[in-house]
Design brief:
Length: about 220
Amino acid sequence: MSISQQFNPIHLLRVFDSKTYVERIDLIFWAAVGAASWVLLWHLAALARIWFLERGTGAFTHLESHKGPNYVAWLSLPSIVVVLLFWLGYRTNLDGLVAPADAYDIQVLSERGAWAFTYPTGKLSRVDLVVPVARPVRLIMSSKDAIHGLSIPELRLQQLAIPGRYSTIWFNIPSQRSLSTRCTEGCDARTNTEPKVVAVDESHFDAWLATNQRLASAAPVK
Ligand SMILES: [Cu+2]
């Protein structure tokens, strides 16, 4: 491998593509925190220098870094960082919004203080959102009363359910898990249910789907 291949910035972006949605969101978050901390530290260092070393000398008004190539570097390098962060965030956000074509669709409706999950077979769950593992699942969301927000913190996902329109999110949970949810629009457990997202393997899922209970409880998974 040549040096130019090793240090190709496009190659770095492809490494980013290979990460999961959660890893990408977290990476962007910490990169933004890191960039902001760096800027803050530089400002504090510059202020300290002016305060302790250059106070009264007039040096600040003649800073060499405010001229010529230095000036261009100070403007362009942070701009590149900001544009890169924006691009990674934009791409990741789009990937989180646009589901794969083969996604499994579940209708999600908020109605009188409860979430109702309707499956393609017609099965209705008012307790938990049971989904198959290792398969893209798309939620098609709406609300019959007020605006609610379904947040699944462990998946770094949040979407609003709005009366009179549809919104979607999608996810793919790789292993059997049970994830908690929150309403992001001010509900708590007294005013709206907080269903669990329960990911079960395909055979469990099919068996659960085949039961005809209207008030289905989730398959027993830790
Ligand atoms: Cu709510």
